[in-house]
Amino acid sequence: MSTSSGRVNRGPAAASENRQAILDAARRLFAARGYHVPLSAIAKEAGVGQGVFYRHFPTRLDLALAVFEENFAQLDAICAAPDEHTFGRLWKRMVELTIESAAFVEMAVDARRSMPDYTGPQHMLALVRTALPPAQAAGLVDARLTVDDVLLAHRMIYGVVATAPEPADIGPAVQRALRLLAPRLGPS
């Protein structure tokens, strides 16, 4: 009598596929259910066992950091060849990622508390420092705007996302906040 479930254990040959499946599942579930979604739900969604899951990502923070690096890769690509429009593209994608992935802002806060050498905030600072001056020089963004102002505005947008009473309220609330910020940050 066979007790096989039909799945074949491919062992180490499946490691990269398993890792990617976990990352994809984590991105979906973090976005849908927040940063504190049970890790067992992510493993189940990815189609891997708990052992496989924890071999790849021993902690929630390890997993979230790996997923978050994909966000930074997108932002890095936007800033790769800065021109006067880079800030607008960067700001737009930062807002989109905040709406799509509010869990990752929670992760960054958690990382700052538990990992003193986490460089995410410095990475974001460097991206804004790259993108902002050309937009200001072109008159697309208020010349008095500082990098700290932009990062504060980003935290404000996160606050709107995190405190929305219903998921359906997030988009309209963020658009309203962006209209309030538009005089300084430029069109949204």
Automatic annotation (TrEMBL):
<dbReference type="GO" id="GO:0000976">
    <property type="term" value="F:transcription cis-regulatory region binding"/>
</dbReference>
<dbReference type="InterPro" id="IPR001647">
    <property type="entry name" value="HTH_TetR"/>
</dbReference>
<dbReference type="InterPro" id="IPR050109">
    <property type="entry name" value="HTH-type_TetR-like_transc_reg"/>
</dbReference>
<dbReference type="GO" id="GO:0003700">
    <property type="term" value="F:DNA-binding transcription factor activity"/>
</dbReference>
<protein>
    <submittedName>
        <fullName>AcrR family transcriptional regulator</fullName>
    </submittedName>
</protein>
<feature type="domain" description="HTH tetR-type">
    <location>
        <begin position="16"/>
        <end position="75"/>
    </location>
</feature>
<dbReference type="InterPro" id="IPR009057">
    <property type="entry name" value="Homeodomain-like_sf"/>
</dbReference>
<keyword id="KW-0238">DNA-binding</keyword>
<keyword id="KW-0805">Transcription regulation</keyword>
<feature type="DNA-binding region" description="H-T-H motif">
    <location>
        <begin position="38"/>
        <end position="57"/>
    </location>
</feature>
<dbReference type="Pfam" id="PF00440">
    <property type="entry name" value="TetR_N"/>
</dbReference>
<keyword id="KW-0804">Transcription</keyword>
